[in-house]
């Protein structure tokens, strides 16, 4: 379990910006000459771009769907059953992808489901962390609204950076640390409501949930990346399958402990609506997109992807809800853009 020894230069573990820098170092003058890039490099670039954009799009609609799924300020459905269905759907999608691979490429050591105890024994840890984090994600809305949630969610940015350094032993330059702080400040500023001074007035339970969520999300994300990249050649769908199997098991326990009586009396799908179904689908696809980003990019890309999604949510809200974008939003967007540039520049100093 020496996950700390994972190399920064894993075959499939670099970031999108790493690829650009490597290609430039080989004499390719940037995007204009992308047609001259070897097919394998083009495929890696395309794959990373697709999964990152998918994660950004899915994350941007996540908070909105959760809020929309509430009726009269509360969830009429069981959040534990919804979480169980998310894990089940992710597991089914992983199996479907594997079935297609088996049909086209055959069964190999890297894509077979059979595994060893040493490989599979590490998956219960992130599965349990994700369970608690995902459940808190529902309950925190009892104390904050969507903008407040987006603000508190930025705590995950710093926790990920710190844990990324501690667990994976990957050095972050001073410029990158400054970029993290700017990113957190920029996203927070972009979500502020200039017409109210109550946006950050979150009750103590809300702050506690937010801090716990940030730590759980950061640790689970970095730990999962370590597991996934420990064996780079292993098919991501096999790794996802085992992670989601344990996720399903832990969610069954959560249903029995928390909502057993409600499920038995009202039914498993009581209170479900179209919005609830869309929310479950969104969470499932988001989870798979996150694992893909961890496999083919890293947690830093995931953090920036989800941060950009916060800004995208605000822009989309203008058309959906008639929100007015404040000066704070434009200032925050500028700070985020500078942060992204600094993070990219800081990579060259490591």
From TrEMBL:
Pfam family, one: Nuc_sug_transp
Entry's transmembrane regions: 50-69, 81-99, 120-141, 147-168, 175-192, 204-228, 240-257, 269-291, 303-321, 327-344
Membrane topology according to the record: Multi-pass membrane protein
First-listed, main subcellular location of the protein, grouped into a coarse class: membrane
UniProt keyword list: Membrane, Transmembrane, Transmembrane helix
Keyword Nucleotide-binding belongs to the record: no
UniProt cross-references to InterPro entries, sorted A to Z: EmrE-like (IPR037185), Nuc_sug_transpt (IPR007271)
Protein name: CMP-sialic acid transporter 4
């Amino acid at each position: 379990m020496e996950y700390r020894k994972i190399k920064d230069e894993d075959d499939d573990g670099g970031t999108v910006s790493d690829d650009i820098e490597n290609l430039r170092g080989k004499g390719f003058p940037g995007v204009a000459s992308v047609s001259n890039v070897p097919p394998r490099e083009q495929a890696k670039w395309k794959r990373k771009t697709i999964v990152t954009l998918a994660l950004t799009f899915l994350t941007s609609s996540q908070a909105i769907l959760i809020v929309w799924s509430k009726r009269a300020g509360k969830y009429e459905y069981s959040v534990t059953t919804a979480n169980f269905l998310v894990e089940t759907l992710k597991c089914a999608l992983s199996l479907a992808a594997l079935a297609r691979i088996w049909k086209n490429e055959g069964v190999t050591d890297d894509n077979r489901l059979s595994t060893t105890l040493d490989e599979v024994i590490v998956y219960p840890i992130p599965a349990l962390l994700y369970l608690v984090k995902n459940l808190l994600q529902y309950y925190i809305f009892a104390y904050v609204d969507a903008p407040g949630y987006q603000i508190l969610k930025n705590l995950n940015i710093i926790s990920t950076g710190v844990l990324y350094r501690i667990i994976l032993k990957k050095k972050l330059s001073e410029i990158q640390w400054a970029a993290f702080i700017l990113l957190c400040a920029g996203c927070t500023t972009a979500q502020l409501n200039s017409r109210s001074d109550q946006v950050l007035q979150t009750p103590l339970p809300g702050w506690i949930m937010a801090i716990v969520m940030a730590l759980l999300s950061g640790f689970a994300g970095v730990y999962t990346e370590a597991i996934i990249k420990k064996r780079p050649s292993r098919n991501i769908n096999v790794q996802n399958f085992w992670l989601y199997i344990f996720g399903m098991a832990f969610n069954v326990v959560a249903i029995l402990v928390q909502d057993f009586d409600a499920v038995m009396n009202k039914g498993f799908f009581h209170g479900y609506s179209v919005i609830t179904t869309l929310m479950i689908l969104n969470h499932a696809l988001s989870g798979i997109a996150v694992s893909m980003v961890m496999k083919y990019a890293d947690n830093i890309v995931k953090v920036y992807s989800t941060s950009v999604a916060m800004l995208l949510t605000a822009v989309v809200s203008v058309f959906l809800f008639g929100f007015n974008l404040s000066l704070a939003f434009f200032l925050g967007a500028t700070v985020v853009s500078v942060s992204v540039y600094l993070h990219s520049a800081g990579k060259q100093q490591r």
